Amino acid sequence: MLGDHTDAMSSAAPNLSSDARLHFVTGKLAEVSLRSQISIAIEREPFAFTVQVLPITVAALITPKWLLRHLQVPDGTTHLILPGFCEASLDDSGDAEGRTWRTLIADAAELPAESVLCGPKDCRDLDAWLGGKIVQPDLSRHSIEIIAEINHAPRMKIDDVVAIAGALRGEGADRIDVGCDPSRRCETIGDYVSALVAAGHKISIDTFDAWEAATAIEAGASLVLSVNSSNRDQAIDWGCEVVAIPDTPDDLDSLDATIAFLSRHSVPFRLDPILEPIGFGFGESLLRYAEVRRRYPEHAMMMGIGNLTELTDVDSAGLNFVLLAFCQEFSINSVLTTQVINWARSSVKECDLARRLVHYSITQGVPPKRLSDQLVMLRDPKLRPHASEVIESIASGIRDNNYRIIAQDDTLHLLSAGVHLQGTDPFAIMEELLSLPESDNVDPSHAFYLGYEMAKASIALQLGKQYDQDQALRWGHMTVEEDLHRIARTSRHRKRS
Known about the structure:
8-stranded parallel sheet, disordered N terminus, disordered C terminus
């Protein structure tokens, strides 16, 4: 909290009122930042407060047992706000009678247990935490079906195809599309489809081979991609929904003819005017989708978005989002995607996140901004720099030999007792550090830790991301959380003589 860095909030914030009196507990290094955030909060919602700076440098190292020995809560306090890192152990048993640390601390403070709260782990989030007005959008709803294609499925073993399908469903796919090999018929296509259906998947079959389509339908497939004038006659006997496409992408008259044919024979269908890659009429193809929706407002539509994501040298998340937004606006309620090429390897998950965002945005009439950061991957939604005076305060206030790293304003800062190194080159900073007498505690494992964190900090500066020591860089839905390496190691770092 109140000193260490993460976006996570701990307890629910108190309801502020004119008689609220909050007592904040923190460590030495966080005092300046904490008081700065409180001053911002009380301008919006006045409340009384006190601050107790405990005799410890880093607030994250406060334990409930240690806190009890130092806690001094003024009379009249209505809420005790502890460092966010206390949350993990606050409800553990604290004595032989089985009372929790929360209860023991509440008794010592002469407060109800529910008035002992843990604030955000990063004090720069304190104002937002105390606001208590932020309502998280409901992103559970969506109206676009995701069809995930397994390309050239017959070239794989059936068990492998079933495993891939399970992973795709876990990422958000509603239907698995079995992509056949156009160069040769798969005589065992029914076995593939049967195995997938047995695993609980809804299946579409992607083939122009009428035998493959009929066999797949018999095995449980419920959608055929695709039909036009070349194979629509066979669709009459399938008893299955199909995707109607034009004979060539720019020939909407042929699509009209196929629609009329299927309608006469009561074949259920959805329409796909074909999305063209950039360089081959991308803009015109979007206009065709709009035109088909105008001509056939009552018919279901599908868009195969892989023609753009797989054939464009750009990370797929942004492309998927924009295409899903287009689909939402034009009531194109299914998309076909694949994730073969490396830059599109998470397309299904991206589409799942995007369809929820665009549904909320369009149904609520709000821009898709500040709704979720799961598709903000290369950079971060917001940077939270320390004020320069805060960095100086931290530097001058450190009394121990543990190293703090701050990365902001194109500069790396390495701080410890009597040490404040800064620059843009981590190698130069480490070289300077090792030349100082104060560096006698940098053993190989400590040097590895510093190198790892400095590398993360350098990446953050290069990309314009937020760097918080001992926290994972944020990569949206691809973020992999890290252990708190520094906090776990501090007690093992040998002291300077």
